[in-house]
Amino acid sequence: MTKLRYKKVLLKVSGEVLMGETAFGIDMPTVEAVAEDIKQVVEAGVELSLVIGGGNIFRGMAGAAKGMERASADYMGMLATVMNALAMQDALERIGVQTRVQSAIPMPTVCEPLIRRRAQRHLEKGRVVIFAAGTGNPFFTTDSGAALRAAEMQSDALFKGTSVDGVYTADPKKDKTATRYDRLTYHDVLAKDLKVMDASAISLMRENKIPIVVFSIRERGNLLKVLHGQGVHTVITEDS
Ligand code: UDP
Q: What pLDDT digit, counting tens, does each position of 121-153 carry?
């Protein structure tokens, strides 16, 4: 196979991916399948950090829509990401991948607190670091959390694993004429208001010159392919 394009990667997996074909929660066979893909790239020598969303369990906006105070609902959303992180840790360790979970909301009985330099050390030792609880702040999303960790861990790229194989001109599930971009600029994404990640996440990646790679994590083996610059995906950088 060709050379790896990126050595140090932060992978964001949305909570919805972990539902698999179910309507809610954690589908363990799906988590195990994603874990196998992660094992492949770790064995290929990639230093991998993970941020997992919580949308499969709870979203702050949904709680707020039902009358809850937004901040409380967001904290529940962050706790949901911790559950997903523990499920992923379990699946990875069962197949021999060493991991550490670090939570932005300290809960020392369950996992490590977020300590950047310690996380760096884990990566150097070949462990996968799973960052839980997003940014630790309400009114943010795990996309912003992923961008923040990608920047502070000095990642070579931010990989966004979704159920769609890249960025499209419109939502391909609703619009059959939508076409996929191979390459985009940060500016295009912001100016065209393309639904890739929050504007704050895109801006942070732009300031730090970290490419964003959007690909389908539902397709087995795709993560490794995309890391080699193959497979279907969209790359977002400063120049298209
Ligand atoms: N959340 C938050 N601050 C963060 C990250 C997440 O308040 O820094 C909350 C927010 O309520 C969000 C929920 O956690 O709706 C789950 O995260 P997200 O919706 O980003 O998950 P995904 O869409 O990736 O599954």
A: 999 999 999 999 999 999 999 999 999 999 999
For ligand 1, atom 21: residue with the closest CA: 53
Q: Determine the distance separating the centroid of ligand 1 and the alpha carbon of 162, expressed in angstroms.
A: 15
- Burial of 103-134, coded b for 16+ CB within 10 Å and e otherwise, reads bbbeeeeebbebeeeebbebbeeebbbbbbbb
Q: Which residues line ligand 1 (CB under 6 A)?
A: 14-16, 53-55, 59-61, 74, 77-78, 80-81, 134-135, 137-138, 140-145
H or E stretch at 185: strand 183-185
Beta bridge partners of 11: 50, 159
Question: Structural domains in the chain?
Answer: 8-237 (3.40.1160.10)
**pTM higher than 0.90 for the full model?**
yes
